[in-house]
Amino acid sequence: MYKHTVSLLLAVSSLMIFFGGCSKSDMVKKEEPVVPVANVAGTVKTESASKKPAIQSSKDSIVSETVNPITNAGELKAALENIYFDFDAHVLSPQARETLAKNSEMIKNDSAINVRIEGNCDERGSDDYNLALGEKRAKAAMQYLMTLGISEKRLSVISYGKEKPVVAGHDEASWAKNRRDDFVITSK
């Protein structure tokens, strides 16, 4: 009897370790490249995320490790607007669609750039949940930009989940500003 119990416990724990250790998501942890960007005044500064990207995807390729400076990137970066989402949602609001339409016109005017869409969430929810939600938000914006005529090859998405808040508060006004997609200029 004791032998059978030990054998059963060993088999069950082996299965738990096997199935518990298998990853069910496509997480790619990679250092974000430092991107030289000319700001509006014309000087050059470097941008780098303080955190590592959590999820990064594109149907054709992952964001290039080397990024060339773009002459009008500062003006374009300043002109591209973020879009915001409701709590626990990745559906584009009418305001977000209007903002994406404006962004698409600016992106269409410069064929030398690519855009990385960064999905972000507020601090509520687990890390895994927010990474998945951030990716859904970025992909929703990407799909809409594609319907507006931007080539899929010029767009990529990444999710930072709750790792890159722009406001540190713990109230609805702060959370609303952190539920967003940022648009980052990269080159071809």
TrEMBL record:
Signal peptide span:
1-24
Keyword check for Cell cycle: yes
Report membrane topology: Lipid-anchor
UniProt-annotated location(s) = Cell outer membrane
Task: For this UniProt record, give its keywords in alphabetical order, as a comma-separated list.
Answer: Cell cycle, Cell division, Cell outer membrane, Lipoprotein, Membrane, Palmitate, Signal
Q: Does the keyword Lipoprotein apply?
A: yes
The cross-references to CDD domains, in alphabetical order and at most eight, read: OmpA_C-like
What residues does the OmpA-like domain cover? 72-188
SUPFAM superfamilies xref list: OmpA-like
The record's Pfam families line, in alphabetical order, gives: OmpA
Q: Which NCBIfam families match?
A: Pal_lipo
The protein's matches in PANTHER family, at most eight in alphabetical order, are given as: LIPOPROTEIN YIAD-RELATED (PTHR30329:SF21), STATOR ELEMENT OF FLAGELLAR MOTOR COMPLEX (PTHR30329)
- Hey, which family's this protein in? Belongs to the Pal lipoprotein family.
Q: What is this protein called?
A: Peptidoglycan-associated lipoprotein
Gene that this polypeptide is encoded by: pal
